Amino acid sequence: MGAYHYQPVVYHPHNQKPSCKNPGYFVSKPTCAWLACGFLSLALLHLLCCDPTATRQAAFSPLRQYINNTYSFVSTVPGGGKSCNYSEGSWVWAPGHGRRYNATECNVKESHDCIRNGRHDTGYLDWRWQPAGNCPLLAFDATLFLTVVRGKHVAFIGDSMARNQAQSLICLLTAGATFPYRLLYRGTGAYPDKYNYWRYAFPSHDVTVSFYWTPFLVRAEGKSVDDGLLHNYVHLDEPHDRWAADADTIDVAVLTAGHWFLNGAVYYNGSEVIGVHNAPPEFTNHTIIGYAWPLRVAYRSAMEWLLSSGRPQPRTLVLATFSPSHFEGEPAENPTSWVCRKTEPYTEGEKEMAWVVKDTRGIVHDEAEAAKARYDGNGGGGAVRIEVLDVTKLAAMRPDGHPGVYMNRDPFAHDGVQVEKLVSDCLHFCLPGPVDTFNEILVQLLKRGR
Ligand SMILES: *[C@@H]1O[C@H](CO)[C@@H](O)[C@H](O)[C@H]1NC(C)=O
Ligand SMILES: *[C@@H]1O[C@H](CO)[C@@H](O)[C@H](O)[C@H]1NC(C)=O
Ligand SMILES: *[C@@H]1O[C@H](CO)[C@@H](O)[C@H](O)[C@H]1NC(C)=O
Ligand SMILES: *[C@@H]1O[C@H](CO)[C@@H](O)[C@H](O)[C@H]1NC(C)=O
Ligand SMILES: *[C@@H]1O[C@H](CO)[C@@H](O)[C@H](O)[C@H]1NC(C)=O
Predict the structure, then answer these.
(1) What counts of helices (H) and strands (E) characterise the chain?
(2) Residues in contact with 189: Cβ distance below 8 Å, sequence separation at least 6, in sequence order
(3) Which of 72-76, 102-106, 373-377, 420-424 has the lowest mean pLDDT?
(4) Residue 252 CB neighbours (<10 A)
(5) What's the pLDDT tens digit per position in 152-187?
(6) Residue 75 pLDDT > 50, yes or no?
(7) Smaller CB count within 10 Å for the chain: N or C?
(8) β-bridge mates for residue 388, sequence order
């Protein structure tokens, strides 16, 4: 076991063949052993590669009635002032609060469209994040968001949690079609993936919102580019070329990374290997550097490239903190429990936050503080604002908000389904779901800086 136990995104029992062609999807025992067990598997995130196994049309869904077709979630509660600290708080019962949009209508990844996929318990949509100190967090307001970022290009750069949040934002902004919008592209040129490279325009406010899949923030080769490969080779001294090419168009960047650093990689500076974490066998004679230092360097490098790209000021960089997964149990001991089956948030104190989760959260805060000191007011000649979007606590409290086995359509539709053989996504959130709250907080952070 490694010093930091971390849990994979998808669990296949050891005796089962992978259900799709992707070899990285299935973590064999030998692989697991030399990986110091348990880490690699996380890289599977885009396991989401796999098409849903069941393709038949869903029968009439009784859940339909729960979606509030008025889509009117503009709150009239005043407040949300400068002093609000959104990172601590609790989830309070608020029936209907999370039922905001129909994810099928906003191009989300099918594996996050839990309602379409047949998830029947929808209580996970009935909670509202109440920040500590009684300050209110207003429900998402598309008008407010577009007004706050009027004339700007908002870019989400990062891993699949960045994508989860970016897709949530598009759903929140397009629900009810209050404002005209246009999909500018889904996949381009050398980057054809329709979920990982896209941009929307909201012409009424001259706003664009884009997503750049780049799980290490910097340039990487290997598994993150080709899921058929087992390992990652990461160039800490080079930006990912797809977002770097657009860096001088980005006004507001939301950076999200962490999970892939925990999995491990071979890290390069130029052509030199500077260290490894959970390395493939041929690299194990190199210095073991863990995940923390590369993660810090990647954040610093990404911020530096964004701010030195020549875009006129002001610019805003938002660093999102770690959103942990909720795989329960140890596969060897209890295969059937390794699925996120909870239907309610944790209560305060019910579950201690894992050390590694606190550590990655702290790294983001540290790097944001250091960047504030570095760029304060003069990141190359104008106003630069650095904010932390601390979602760790609120996300950690929501084991109930993941697709679980509903990452596939109608997982129980076939006779004789063996529950323990189903695969689960206990990392990303259902859409709609708790990740919508990330965007409620994002609006407030952007608003108070104006
Ligand atoms: C969501 O939208 C799709 C496509 O318009 C529709 O087929 C489906 O019934 C809707 N789902 C709900 C729960 O309203
Ligand atoms: C928010 O609350 C947390 C936990 O109490 C604290 O560590 C953090 O410093 C606070 N942040 C701000 C900006 O006050
Ligand atoms: C739907 O939205 C309307 C308008 O805000 C509200 O009056 C109604 O209570 C909502 N229904 C549910 C089920 O949330
Ligand atoms: C990479 O090497 C250059 C030149 O030797 C050095 O200045 C830089 O600090 C190194 N970067 C990292 C991340 O080690
Ligand atoms: C590590 O082993 C590989 C393969 O045997 C070798 O090519 C490389 O030079 C070694 N690196 C170090 C730092 O010893």
Answers:
(1) 9, 13
(2) none
(3) 72-76
(4) 22
(5) 999 999 999 999 999 999 999 999 888 999 999 999
(6) no
(7) N
(8) 319
Give 183's DSSP letter.
E
In sign, the C-alpha dihedral spanning 130, 132, 136, 139 is negative
Which is nearest to 278 in space by CA: 28, 41, 21?
41
Which contacts (CB < 8 Å, 24+ apart) does range 283-286 have?
none
**Which residue has tokens 């577009």?**
146
Q: Report cis status (omega within 30 of 0) of the bond before 314.
A: yes
CATH architecture of 84-448: 3-Layer(aba) Sandwich (3.40)
Confidence of residue 416 (pLDDT cuts 50, 70, 90): confident
The closest alpha carbon to 260, from 211, 217, 317, 302, belongs to 217
Closest ligand 3 atom to residue 97 Cα is 14
Q: In this structure, which amino acid lies at residue 384?
A: V
Cβ density class 429-442: b for 16+ within 10 Å, e for less: bbbbbbbbbbbbbb
Atom of ligand 5 nearest to the CA of 286: 13
- Report the nearest-CA residue for atom 1 of ligand 3: 68
Beta bridge partners of 182: 201
User: What's the gap in Å between 236 CA and the centre of ligand 4?
Assistant: 9
Q: In the chain, what are the domain boundaries? A: 84-448
Nearest to 293 by CA among 366, 402, 214: 366
Residue 169 near residue 226 (C-beta atoms within 8 A): no
Distance of CA 88 from the midpoint of ligand 2 (Å): 7
Atom of ligand 3 nearest to the CA of 69: 1
What is the spatial order of strands in the sheet that 272-277 belongs to? 218-222, 232-239, 265-269, 272-277
Q: How far is the CA of 282 from the centre of ligand 5 (A)?
A: 7
For 188, which DSSP code? B
Cβ < 6 A, ligand 3 pocket: 68, 70, 72, 96
Residues belonging to the active site:
160, 425, 428
Q: How far is the CA of 68 from the centre of ligand 3 (A)?
A: 6
Please give all residues whose beta carbon lies within 6 A of any atom in ligand 1, as ranges: 61, 63-64, 67, 102, 104-105, 115
How many Å from the N-terminal Cα to the C-terminal Cα in the chain?
48
Cite the DSSP H helix spans in 70-207: 142-148, 160-174
Q: Specify the 3-state DSSP secondary structure of 299.
A: helix
* Whole-structure pTM value: 0.82
